[in-house]
Queue: 4 jobs
Job 1
Amino acid sequence: KSEQFNWDEYLKETESIAAPLHCFRQSRIPPTNDFKVGMKLEARDPRNVTSVCIATVIGITGARLRLRLDGSDNKNDFWRLVDSSDIQPIGTCEKKGGMLQPPLGFQMNASSWPMFLLRTLNGAEMAPAAFFKKEPPKPVPNCFKVGMKLEAIDRKNPYLICPATIGDVKGDEVFVTFDGWRGAFDYWCRCDSRDIFPVGWCSLTGDALQPPGNNAESDLECWQLPPASAVVELFGQKKILPEQLTPTSPSPQPSPEGENGTMQI
Ligand code: MLZ
C-alpha cells in the first residue's frame, strides 16, 4: 500500500489553506463508533426519505456505518455517520407514533411486510441507544471560500473520502471539486452537508483518505490545428509542420480518460 497522504506537504505544494473547522457540520472530535456488524437500527430510506425502515449494520468505517435496509437488495447500501439524524434506535419510530415502512424495492409481496418485520426483529441484536450520537448544530453562515481544501465523500463511490477543493460558493451552497479528477465527480451541496469534512478528519477516524487523482487540472497543454492555409504539401502528402501547431489554453475535459482512452473510474 502506498504511504499515507500527507496534507501538510500537499497544502504547501498547492499553496492553499484548509477550510476552518467551524465551517463544517461535524464535531471537532469525531464521534466514537461503538456499533458492531450485524446490529439493527432504524434508518430513513435514502431513496424514499419519508419512510423509516429497519437497517442492518453491514460494515464499519471510521465514524460511519455501512447500512443495508432489511428486505432490500445488496445493491443499495448506504453510509451514515454515527451522529447522523437519519438513524435512531429500534423503537423510536413507534414511540413517536410512526410506523416502520418496507424499503423502496422491498423484495417480497407488500402484504408480507408485517410478518417480515416480526421475523427480522425477532432475536435481532439491536444497537443500544448510547451508540447513537447527537448531530452537531448547523454552522451559520456559509463561511467557505473558493480554493479552501477539505475532505469529501465521493458521491459516486460513497465509501470513499477524497481530498477536495471548494470550487465555488453560492448562498448556502458550495461546489465540491475533487483534486485530480477533472470535474467527473464534482457536486454542489449545502455548506452544512454531512458529506464534507475538515482536513485531518480521516486521520482522526482511521478512515483511509484517498490520494488525489493524477489527472492534471491546470497544466494541460491542448494543441490546436493550424488553419487550412498553413497545411503544406510535402511529397504530395498533406503534412502539418510541428512549429505550426500552437498551444492553447486548456479546454474543459468531458471525463477523466486515460492515455488509451479508457475510463479510470
Ligand atoms: N473508479 C475509481 C474511483 C475514482 C474515485 C474518484 N474519487 C474522486 C476507482 O475505482 O479507482
Job 2
Amino acid sequence: MNLSDEIQRRRTFAIISHPDAGKTTLTEKLLLYSGAIDRAGSVKGREGAGHAQSDWMEIEQERGISVTSAAMQFEYRDHVLNLLDTPGHQDFSEDTYRALTAADSVVMLLDCAKGVEEQTKKLFRVANDRGLPIFTFVNKLDRPGREPVELIDEVEELFGLRAVPMTWPIGSGPDFKGVYVRATGQIQVFERAKAGRKARVAGQGSLDDPEISALLTPDELQRLKDDVELMDHVLPAFDLEEFLAGRQSPLFFGSALNNFGIAEFLDEFLDMAPAPHARPLAAGGEVGPESPFTAFVFKVQANMNKAHRDRVAFARVVSGRFERGMDALHVRGQKSIKLNYPHMFFGRERLIVDEAFPGDILGLINPGLFRIGDVLSAAGPVEFHAVPRFSPEQFVSVRLADPGARKGFLKGVQQIAEEGVVQVFWPRGGAPLPILGAVGRLQFDVLQHRLKTEYACPVLMEPRGFQMARWIQGGWPEPSRFWGELVEDSEGRAAILFENDWQRRTTAEKNPDLTFQEHPA
Ligand code: G4P
C-alpha cells in the first residue's frame, strides 16, 4: 500500500471522560469489534482477573490503576485506529492532557445520568483549544438517565458546541430498545448480550417496515416518530466542515457494557474522523503527512520493564514512512540516531514494529535521550510548536529522609521533571529545596517512588495549600502588592503560586501592568 493510502486509512484519537463514565468498557468494546481481542474484559484487570498489560509500574499494580498513557492500535473495516490512552482516574496527570497533542480527534464520553462532569470539562477545553473535532457518545442508556435534549442543551451551554444527533435512543433505562440511525433512517433493535459478547441485533430496518416496528410498542414507535420529526425540523443538520472546525459535535447514544450502538458509532466515526493531516511548524509553514519522516515525543515513560529499567519515549509520527533501523535527526540534540527497536501496542501486545505511518505512535527505547517535545526528523531540523506544559493544581514541599542526599535528589528530580512528571518551582529569595507542582496528586506518588527506587533518595512530602500557578510577564510585582508565593520555574521564568482565586484576582487587579498566564510563554 502506498504512503497516501496508509495515511488516509488512519484515525488517531483519544477518549475523554470523567472516571466511571465507561471509557475502559468502551475501549474494550472497540477492541472487541476490531477483533484485537476475542472477549472483552481484558483491557483492565477487574474482579481479581489480574492486571492488564498497561499496568507496568509497581505503583500502578498496588493501586490497580493505570498511571501511564500510551496508545493502542487496532484495525476495523480496513482502517487503522490508534487510540491514545488518557488515564481517567481522579489523579490524572499532565500526560492525560498531553495525549491530546497527539490526537487528530476526540470522543467525549458522557454518562447519560450525569451529563458533563468535571474532568470532562477540563479535557474538553484542552481538546477544543487545540481545535480538535469532538465526537460525543452518551453511554449507559440501559440505565435511567437524562433526556437526550437536556444533554444536547448542556453541551451547548457549557461548551458552545452544537451536538447534532447521528443516532437517537429508542426508550431508556430498562426500556432501552435500540437506536435510530439518522443517516440511513434505519432502526436497530438490540437484544441484551451476555457479558463480553457483541450485542445481538434483534432487528434492523426502516421505520415503516412492519416487521421492525412490531418490535416496538405502539407508544415507543409514536414517540420515536415524534422525536425524529423534532430532530429534523429543530436541530441543525450535521455539517462536516462545522465538525472539523470544532463547532459541531456528532452525537451518538448507546451502552458500552451491552454493546448497544457501538458498531453504529464506529462506522460513522471512520467516515467522519479526520485522517492525519499537516502539522504547523514553530517557524511558520507546516509539514504535510506525505513529507519525509518526522515525529514528536509527547510522553516519556520510565520503568515500564522493571528488569531493564528502561525508559520509553512515545512519539507520534507526523509525516512519512517510518522504517525500523532508519536514521533520523534528533533535532534538539543535533545528532543523527538510528531507530532500531521501536515498539507499538497492538491490542494488548507490545511488539517491535518494522514500519509506521503518520498517526501511529512509536514507543522508542530511550537511554535518557528523549524529552517531551523532542522532534525526530528525516526532513532536516524542523521544529513543531512546543508540546504545552499544563498548569499544576497540586503542590508539595519535600523533605529529605537523608539531608546529605540533596545533590542526588536534585539530579533525580530534574530528570524526572524533564519527563514531565512534576514541575519544579524555586521560591524567590532562595530555598534549599523546591516546591513541586503537578496536575494530579498521583504524580507525587510516582515521583516519591522513583526517587526511592531509582535514585536511592527517599523523601517526605508535605502538601502545600496552593491551587494554581501563573507565569508572570512584565516583571515581578511590588512586595506589598501581591498575594501568594513568588517562584521561578526550572527554566528561571517568573511565576507565582496562589492559594485561591481571590488571591489571583486581587494580585492581577493590583498589577495591571503585569500579565498572569496559565501556561508558561
Ligand atoms: P472508566 O474507565 O470510565 O472509569 O469506566 P469503566 O469502563 O471502568 O466503567 C465504570 C463502571 O460503569 C463499570 O462498573 C462498568 O461496568 C459500568 N459501565 C460501563 N458502561 C456501561 C453501560 O453501558 N451500562 C451500564 N449499566 N454500566 C456501564 P463497575 O461496577 O465499576 O465495574 P464492573 O464490576 O461492572 O466491571
Job 3
Amino acid sequence: MYVCLCNAISDKVIRSAIHQHQPQSMQQLRKLVPIGTDCGKCIRQTRVIFEEEQAKI
Ligand code: FES
C-alpha cells in the first residue's frame, strides 16, 4: 500500500528501512526515505508505522 503518493513510497519500503537502519527518530527516518517532501500528507501515517515497527524491535 502506498503511504506517500507524491514519491510513490509504500509501507513495505518504510518498514524495511526501519528494520535495516533502525532510525531513532522520524527525522532520521526521513533521511532514509523521502517522506513528506511534497504535500506532507504522508507524515502522520508514517509516524504510526514508525511507532509500530519500533515496538517490534
Ligand atoms: Fe508524501 Fe505527498 S504524500 S509528500
Job 4
Amino acid sequence: TAVSGGGNVLLPGLVDLHVHLREPGREDAETIASGSAAAAAGGFTAVFAMPNTDPVADTALVCDHVWRRGREVGLVDVHPVGAVTVGQKGERLAEMGIMAAGEAQVRVFSDDGFCVSDPLVMRRALEYASGLGALIAQHAEDPRLTCGACAHEGPTAARLGLAGWPRSAEESIIARDAILARDADARVHICHVSTAGSVSVLRWAKEQGIAITAEVTPHHLLLDDSRLEDYDPVFKVNPPLREESDVAVLRRALAEGVIDAVATDHAPHAAHDKDREFALARPGMLGLETALPIVLETMWRPGLLDWRGVARTMSENPAKIAGLADQGRPIEVGEPANLVVVDPDFEWTVRGKELTSIADNTPFEGMRLRGRAVATVLRGRVTARDGRAEL
Ligand code: DOR
Ligand code: ZN
Ligand code: ZN
C-alpha cells in the first residue's frame, strides 16, 4: 500500500493512448507544441493524437505532418492516430495501409469523437487493421441511443432536465465489437470505458479469449454526475460522468486488469466553445497535467495499485497495446532512457490559467492535488522539470 514521505519514485515515461492536440485546425485551443509541453510537464514521453482535427487525419499527408511537427517540438513522441473512415463520416474506410506505410507508421486507428457505428464498416475495418497488424480504438457509443444527449441518463439528469446518454449506448457497442473482433481474428481497443456494465462485458470478452483491451480516464476514476448540479459545462464530457457506483467498479476493474490502461482523453476547448449553456457547450476536459496525481489519489493511495501497477497501467500496458518497443519498460544500462521521476507528496492547487495547455477547461479547478513529475526524460534529454516543460 501507499506510503508517503518515501522520497521520489522512478517510473518509465508515461504513455497516453488518447489525447486531442487540435492541430491542424483548432490552434486556438491547443497546438502540437503546447500539447507536447503539457504532456512532458505531466510526466509523459509518448502520446497518441486523435484524428478529429480539421482537416481530419485520414491521410498519410496529415498523419505525417502531425508526426513531423511532434519531432520538431521534441518534447514527447507524438504518434498520430489515423481515422478509420474518410472524414470520420463512418461510411468509407480510409486508406489505413497508406497511413501505416508513411513516415509516421500509423499503427492505431480510431474515429474518436465519433463511433464507428455501422457494424459492417466496423467488421471490415477490423479485418483491414488486422492485416496491417494495426489496432482499432473504438469510441463506444451507439448514436441512435444517445441522440444529442449531454449527460448520463439517470436521476441527476432527470432532475436537471438534461437529455440522457444511457449506459446501453456504450455497453452494446463494446459487446458487439468484442464479437466482431473475435470473428475477424482481430484486436480491438475500447476508449474511455465509463460504466459498470462495460466492465462486465469486458470481463466476459476477456474470459472468451477475445483480444480486447480497454482504457479509463482519470476523470471517470474520480468524478461522478453529482458535479452537474450547477450546470457547469466544464463537467460536460463524452462519455458522460456516470454514478458513484460506476466509479467504484471502474477503479476495481483497473486494479484487477479488466481495464488495461489509463488514458486522459485530453480535450482542450477554447473558452467560447466551452463557457456556454450546458446543452450547447463542447464536451471534453483537460487531462495531461493532472492525470498522474489523480491516479495516485484514486488508485495508489487507497492501495488499489502499487507502484508497479501505476507503471503497468500508465506506461507498460499502453505501450504494449500500441506496439511501442521503446517505451513502457525498465531502462537498459547505458541506453537513452524514457522515464519520469515522481514526487508523490508534492502538493499543489490546480489553476486552469496556470496550466501549460492553451485552453483552461480543467474539471479539477481549485482542487488540492498531491503528486507531480519532478523530471521527465525523453531519450536521455530532460523535457520537463517540476511541472514545466523545458522549452
Ligand atoms: O468529450 C469528448 N471530447 N469526447 C470525445 O469523444 C471527443 C472529445 C473532443 O474531441 O473534444
Ligand atoms: Zn471519445
Ligand atoms: Zn477522445
